[in-house]
Amino acid sequence: MEYKELKIKEDFIKLDSALKFASLVPTGGIAKMVILEGLVKVNGEVCFQRGKKLFKGDKAEYDGEGFIIL
């Protein structure tokens, strides 16, 4: 899988915000829904925490697309 590069200025970004920022979902509400349904993986493992903090080097995947935090 090819990962988009998601550059952040802060130390971390929350998973639901990152999905929206990466344009993998159109709204934060949809991000919350797909996370709670177990459709999102973080670093290869299914993640149900929409507030999970992603740091530089973390990878997330949803619906055949993914991004890496830089």
Q: How would you characterize the overall build of this protein?
A:
- By secondary structure, the protein is of the alpha+beta class.
- It has one domain: Roll (Structural Genomics Hypothetical 15.5 Kd Protein In mrcA-pckA Intergenic Region, Chain A).
- It is built from two helices and seven strands.
- The strands form two sheets. The chain has a five-stranded mixed beta sheet with strand order 1-7-6-3-4, with helices on one face.
- A hairpin with a 2-residue loop joins strand 3 and strand 4.
- Helix 1 packs across helix 2.
- It is globular and about 25 Å long.
Give the helix/strand layout.
Elements: E1 3-6, E2 12-14, H1 15-21, H2 28-36, E3 40-42, E4 45-46, E5 53-55, E6 59-62, E7 65-69
Parallel strand pairs: 1-7
Antiparallel strand pairs: 2-5, 3-4, 3-6, 6-7
Mean pLDDT: 96
Helical content, roughly?
Answer: 10-25%
Q: Catalogue the unreliable spans.
A: none
Task: Tell me the count of domains.
Answer: 1
Shape: globular
CATH class: Alpha Beta
Summarize this structure briefly.
The protein is of the alpha+beta class and about 70 residues long. It is built from two helices and seven strands; from the N terminus they run ββααβββββ.
